[in-house]
Specification:
The protein has 485 residues and is mainly α. Helix content is 43%, strand content 5%.
Length: 485
């Protein structure tokens, strides 16, 4: 009996594909037998769309690995006594609710990997169904890249600290389709398989990705009056919402930094930051503030890869405007403790709201996921969960470059956020301390701070909001689930 695919299969009409939600947010149709799913080029496209939708599950990047559980590990939000959220922030990994939460994240991530592997398991055998030039390479390249991205996040969350790789969990790097999570492998073997996927993805995408020829603005607005990109097949447009070639290089930089391969991280980050359009303009600019006045709070202009989320307005209403995710009751917590009361940093002045409830209680909430445009155009549709942003690459370059060059990259980053130049930093250690502070500010509610703290084994004293009663540990227990359900 043929097995069914356990991912969302998409019903994609041409009218829907032209809409602003691209091919990534189309209503599900049904489960489809594997032999039927992969007997056409469209079937592979639909399956890949299902992968992107799965990645937006609330248990992973839709909430828990963006602004939810992962941010509670660095106490980004105020919590109530004895709540699940409080126990996460106390690193109480024996609490049954905490165990269930991390088990669910683990299982959902491997479920998405299983969906990716189903595509990869069939794509070479059915290569003849691809009639459109470059589509085979795009789909396979994206799948390899997405598999690497998810595996890296599994390692960063559940694996050992890079400084002590022999202490902690060994994980499974799964490359075959199936419900069982395969044999755990060594830290080094996992690293090798991760970079193999990254390299293979880059090799495929660099031959066909339209982003190498066209600007991000062109691809965000295909066939628009100001766009040079002319193609009715929207599958190959909107590369900022897909695992594109430069997203792979940015992922390579992130992964190499995690594994302590600083030269590799530097070279990969530099390739992205120095990428040029055909008119010699910079392909990936770092934002300088005007985006916030345009209500582009997720900074889509500097997202190298983001997940399109049609429900982002609902997420903001449910979690932020209600005060569920809040921090502090006065401006001191955010403006002073987090940002240093600069008076100029646009993140400090434009990214937080003061809420006052009917009883007069005050709380501060971040506006990062607030969507104000009721009828957005292709150029004003900002409903993207940031996955990799240009600003991260500047911080990677600041950390991995020789000191003088690193200081210059760090200055460019600070200038972009409209904060004054620091007094001269004399060594890499003092520069790194300042970089860590910026990870905390820059990626608030994006899930990157915990990974940075774990990578560098930051002490409890250096945490900004960690409760005094917390017992800091970066080593999560091995999840109790061993299948994707």
């Amino acid at each position: 009996m043929k097995k069914l695919l356990y991912f969302t299969i998409m019903a994609a009409s041409s009218a829907q594909l032209v809409s602003c939600n691209k091919f990534l947010d189309i209503a599900p149709r049904t489960e489809v037998r594997e032999d039927q799913q992969f007997n056409s080029e469209q079937g592979f496209k639909d399956a890949l769309a299902g992968v992107y939708i799965n990645m937006k599950d609330l248990s992973t990047y839709g909430t828990e690995l963006s602004f939810g559980t992962i941010e509670h590990l660095v106490s980004s939000w105020d919590v109530t006594s004895n709540s699940l959220e409080q126990q996460i922030g106390l690193f109480n990994f024996s609490d049954s609710r905490v165990i269930k939460t991390f088990d669910n994240i683990f299982s959902k991530q491997y479920k998405t990997i299983a969906n990716i592997n189903s595509i990869l398991q069939n794509i070479d055998a059915n290569k003849s169904v691809f009639k459109t030039k470059g589509t085979y390479e795009l789909i396979k390249g994206e799948c390899l890249g997405l598999r690497a991205l998810i595996h890296l996040d599994l390692m960063r969350l559940y694996g050992p600290m890079p400084k002590e790789p022999s202490i902690g969990n060994n994980l499974s790097y799964v490359t075959e389709f199936g419900k069982e999570i395969k044999t755990h492998i060594s830290y080094e073997a996992y690293r090798e398989m991760l970079f193999q996927d990254i390299n293979n993805s880059a090799d495929l995408l660099k031959t066909v990705d339209p982003l190498l020829e066209y600007s991000m603005a062109d691809l965000r607005n295909p066939n628009g009056s100001s766009s040079k990109f002319r193609n009715d097949d929207t599958f190959i447009a909107f590369r900022n919402m897909r695992m594109n070639y430069y997203a792979i290089k940015a992922l390579e930089a992130r992964a190499a930094l995690w594994y302590g391969e600083n030269e590799k991280a530097y070279n990969a980050a530099k390739e992205v930051v120095e990428a040029k359009n055909t008119d010699n303009t910079q392909k990936f600019k770092i934002s300088t503030g005007p985006e916030f006045s345009q209500e582009n709070f997720t900074l889509t202009t500097e997202q190298i890869f983001g997940l399109y989320n049609q429900q982002m307005s609902t997420a903001y209403t449910d979690f932020f405007s209600t005060g569920i995710y809040r921090k502090g009751t006065s401006s001191t917590t955010i403006n002073t403790k987090l940002f240093g009361n600069t008076g100029t940093d646009f993140r400090e002045s434009s990214l937080w709201n003061l809420l006052v409830d009917q009883g007069g209680s005050k709380s501060y909430v971040i506006k990062k996921y607030q969507i104000l445009a009721e009828t957005p155009t292709a150029l004003t549709d900002f409903k993207q969960i940031p996955m990799i942003r240009t600003s991260e690459l500047y911080l990677i370059l600041a950390e991995t470059a020789p000191l003088d060059e690193g200081l210059e990259y760090f200055k460019q980053f600070r200038d972009s956020r409209n904060i004054s130049t620091l007094s001269v930093l004399q060594n890499k250690e003092s520069l790194l301390a300042e970089i860590v502070k910026e990870y905390r500010k820059e990626f608030y509610a994006e899930g990157q701070a915990f990974y940075t703290y774990k990578r560098l084994n930051i002490s409890k004293e250096q945490f900004l909001f960690l409760p005094a009663s917390a017992t800091l540990t970066y080593l999560l227990p091995m999840p109790t689930v061993e299948s994707v359900n």
